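Supplementary Note 3. Input sequence used for the single-chain structure prediction.
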Amino acid sequence: KLGMQEVIRRAKHNGVEFVLYDKLAVRATDYVQYDSGIKSTPAESREILGIGIMGDAESIKRVTGDLPLLK
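The predicted structure, written as discrete structure tokens, is reproduced below.
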């Protein structure tokens, strides 16, 4: 199964820029609250809700081409 860690690995490998959307980011009401949450929560404990990826169409396809939700 293709998981979020594999998508992140592929994005890095293909030079695609990405932004992670996690529960902390979604629930924070201001940057100070978000920054505090990020500093106090280990990366492996953060609940990733989604990922935004930016790049040329071919690079994006190499990252997401076999994601079942995008077919």
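The chain has a mean pLDDT of 86. The radius of gyration is 14 Å.
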